[in-house]
Amino acid sequence: MGKTVALVHATPLAVEPINDAFRELYPDCVVKNILDDSLLIDLQENNGEITAQLRERLAALVKYGEDCGADAVLLTCSSYSPCASDFQDLVSVPFFRADDALLETAIDSGSTVGLIATVPSAVETATIELEALAKARGSNIVVVSSLCEEAFIALKRGDGEAHDLAVVAAVMELVDQVDVIALAQYSIARVISRIPKTVAGKVISSPHAGVQRLKQVLE
Fold it and tell me: Among positive and negative, which fits the CA dihedral 167, 206, 21, 9?
């Protein structure tokens, strides 16, 4: 029987992209989705500040993931990564933050990293995490970020086409300025198939990087 992974979501927009990545890259894995669809909303209403209460709500979901019989737990919301650095202590199975694999891959890919996100908290969080990881590795990087808030608004109202076009446009605007482009949210990974093949090799997504890393650990 295959391994089981619990996915902890703070927004329903992350569910489809990460499940698609599992179907593509790790089809033998059993996936259990755990969602509190108000976590990201409450974080945004709190101007991106992760309160003790929000952290406790998220921690309870991570522990619940292990209780459900998972062999590993993956958090899919990068905006909550800052408060999740010690969540491994909460569970006895491997725990993965949303973008750890993505950030490591980005730094390994060049010194100038493009970063695309559709909510402000994701831009801030990913930039801080990238710079901290690069410093810890003794590397110097330049982060060039692009915030596409209109894309997130479009996706929330169900207009996937407008979302995808906005993100692809951001990719094309950045691609000649950087060595690699990191899509900083799981909800953005849906555009991978729409990026022109001539530049697709420079674009990485959290779901794909995360599933590949998780598969390596579990197998």
Answer: negative
Confidence of residue 98 (pLDDT cuts 50, 70, 90): confident
Share of residues in the chain with pLDDT > 70 (%): 100
Angle at 118 between CA 82 and CA 57, to 5 degrees: 40
pTM for the model = 0.81
Give the domains, in start order, of the chain with CATH numbers: 4-98+208-218 (3.40.50.1860), 100-205 (3.40.50.1860)
Q: What is the pLDDT of residue 1?
A: 64
pLDDT per position as a tens digit, 137-154? 998 999 999 999 999 999
**Which of these, 66, 57, 68, lies nearest to 10 by C-alpha position?**
57
DSSP 201: T
